[in-house]
What we know:
Radius of gyration: 12 Å
Distance between the termini: 14 Å
Mean pLDDT: 93
Structural class: mainly alpha
Largest sheet: none
Order of helices and strands: HHHHH
Oligomer: single chain
Amino acid sequence: MADYAADIKKYTSNVNAAAVEAIVKFCGIALKGKDSQFVSMTDPAEVKRVVDGFCAKKLGLAAAAAEKAVLAAGEKMKADKTKHRVTVYYLIAEATGTLGKLA
């Protein structure tokens, strides 16, 4: 969990450990795969997967708000070539005010 929190701290000052743990549980086995642990912001299918999966199912966001939040997270992390899935999801939840739905 510490590695996830350290990565998230590069983009935000306060890290909610319970929310990070909930994201890790949601992602499950996807975090084990070399490619699936990262989000490709340049792949429209991957962005749609995040919008339809995490944003809709876990956060209850409408598609337009979700897509805006995903793209904002990608912009915030643009200097980082490897956008870790847990960090992206955390930034989405933080930006949309839905961290409370995770913890």
